[in-house]
Design a protein that fits this description.
It is built from 9 helices and 3 strands, in the order H-E-E-E-H-H-H-H-H-H-H-H. The chain is mainly α. The longest helix has 23 residues, at 140-162. The chain starts with a helix and ends with a helix.
């Protein structure tokens, strides 16, 4: 799946303009908050944020900057999940999920050394991913994907438990972001 296809799916899922009172992010269009749009040079009304501007922001901040493009070379389904999770929770959270899952699946560091959970994809994280995929074979990517989604689901429930206003979003998060 190409990044263009992934971005189109996010744009469609996030929809147009929204200013939900329970959303701490405030105004959004295509899932892009006003703060992110402004930080990336957009000065207009959020209702008018062009789709192409949103596409460029997603590519830059949620694909290239966190290095999910490098993950895609090794594990395209993992990269797609990291991208979507990064859009919803932030790329550092998605990256930490990957690192935590790889650590939990390395059989006591016998397959590859434990990673420092620094929420950044560098050569060590990519090497651990490659080693995991090589050592665990054909189902490895699917299993790793399940582990990442389990961490994501737990975080959504914790967010709803810690802030009752987030309960307004929990059903949609679980229905649209996991699996």
């Amino acid at each position: 799946m190409s990044i263009e296809t992934l971005i189109d799916a996010v744009l469609d899922r996030e929809g147009g303009y929204c200013n939900h009172p329970a959303d701490r992010g405030g105004e959004t269009r295509y899932g892009i908050t006003a703060a992110v749009a402004r930080a990336n040079g957009y000065a207009g009304a959020m209702r008018d944020l062009p789709r192409d501007t949103a596409r460029a922001i997603y590519r830059k901040l949620y694909w290239c900057a966190p290095r999910f493009d490098a993950v895609a070379v090794l594990a395209p389904r993992i990269a797609a999940e990291l991208f979507d999770t990064g859009v919803n929770m932030g790329p550092p959270v998605a990256t930490a999920f990957l690192q935590r899952a790889l650590n939990a699946l390395n059989r006591g560091a016998s397959d590859y050394p434990d990673l420092r959970t620094d929420a950044r994809i560098g050569e060590t994280t990519l090497a651990a991913l490659a080693a995991f995929l090589a050592r665990r074979g054909g189902c490895a990517e699917r299993v790793l994907l399940k582990a990442i989604e389990a961490l994501q689901g737990e975080r959504y429930v914790a967010l709803a438990e810690s802030r009752p206003a987030n309960e307004a979003f929990l059903y949609g998060w679980l229905a649209n972001r996991i699996g």
